[in-house]
Amino acid sequence: ESGHDDQMQLVSFDVAGQEYGLEITCVQEIVQVPERITRVPKAAAAVLGVMNLRDRLLPVLSMRALFGMEPAPLADHNRVVVVSLDGGQTSVGLVMDRVREVLRVPRSLIDPMPPLLAADAQLRDITAVCRLDEGRRIVSVLSADQIFDDGALRGSLAALTEQGQSMDSSETVSDSSDEEQFVVFRLMNEEYGVAIAAVQEILRLPETIARVPRSPDFIEGVINLRGAVIPLVDQRSRFGLPVQERNDRQRVMVFTIRGVQTGFIVDSVSEVMRIARAQIEDAPELALEQAQMIRRVANLAERQRMILLLESDRLLDGAELDALDAA
Prior knowledge:
The chain is mainly beta. Helix content is 15%, strand content 44%. The protein contains 7 helices and 22 strands. The chain has a 6-stranded mixed sheet with strand order 8-1-2-11-10-9. A 6-stranded mixed sheet has the order 19-12-13-22-21-20. A 5-stranded mixed sheet has the order 3-6-7-5-4. Strand 10 (126-132) and strand 11 form a beta hairpin.
């Protein structure tokens, strides 16, 4: 298997029907659009305003406006991708039409922008082009710093960031070492989280899933992931929940468990979020199987949310792993 140095991990998203990607190293988190974004007078046209993200003000910009595209009303499918600029000195929220996947792509499938196109001022944000599905799917890879290379936009951003820091100055801003980063997903009405470092990819559910004869009930089938065949586990079935009809919100989360790449079907992936360690506590008494899998709980009292934190290497027990090996 290729080492991680030979791969690029991207968060891919849609803007006006086109697919773009940002390297995951510059993505701090992905959150839902808040109910309230406060407008800021005299800000650059692309600035939607500021939002409160864990007691700090975050500038929020429209990706459509940055690309000079028609605005569209915000809806449930929009997401705010929080990116870091200038080596982590500045954080900005970018509103995307929808976040699609988290991909780990071999660098052999990524080409630099051709010089002729790279010279076009309108395309300077795009640093590379990623060819997937034998060239049928193109993902344009963006540079977060180059998106904000415009002087007027930089000035507006600096003023907003300063405003946010002055608001924070009276409070102790949590250090990133006091936080953990999780991918949050849903099954029925419950929210679960797994450490982002454990998640290899997050994919849309493919249209075709190959069934495996005489495989255990929890194995939905196998899928082809860029040449590798990986087993697919229906997490609802695994947790003994009612079966759900296939839909666009479902996602496949890919983990490597005991050396085997395995995909888990979940109802939806809602956020990538940072949670303060102070909000994480030991899980209450659970049944033995659950206790193996769920050892901690994030209690976000101010948002009235409880997120069950899963141990990714415990998603399957020994017998199930043996069944996977045999499938």
